[in-house]
Design a protein that fits this description.
63% of the residues lie in helices and 0% in strands. It is mostly helical.
Length: 113
């Protein structure tokens, strides 16, 4: 196992997060920040259809990765377990915002070329 790539962090990166090169804590902080940024991005004047697809893929990929972290046998403190659940909630909220943004985009008349 490699050490976390966050500055000053020496905690080992679990196998489930090998690609991210972050420990569980720093991965959850990173994920929450990205979810918040993408929620803002999908605001009423928001993202293109292609970007919506990218965000949906982000949700799928990181939801799966997070489920592996939660179930891979790591001994997580209760506070860390709560953070994992909060990260799932952030992904779910992002998905809801994305669906609302896609519904708004479908309701708008097409733009003239």
């Amino acid at each position: 196992m490699a050490a976390c790539q966050a500055q000053g962090c020496k905690i080992e990166v679990p196998t489930a997060l090998g690609e991210s090169a972050l420990c569980v804590h720093h991965y959850l902080v990173w994920l929450d920040g990205n979810c918040a940024a993408m929620r803002r991005e999908t605001a009423p004047t928001g993202a293109t259809t292609a970007r919506h697809d990218e965000i949906a893929e982000f949700i799928r990929e990181h939801g799966e990765r997070l489920s592996h972290v939660a179930t891979c046998g790591l001994r997580l403190s209760d506070a860390m377990k709560a953070s994992v659940l909060n990260a799932f909630l952030s992904l779910m909220n992002l998905r809801e915002n994305l669906e609302r943004a896609m519904e708004r985009a479908r309701a708008l008349p097409p733009r003239p070329l």
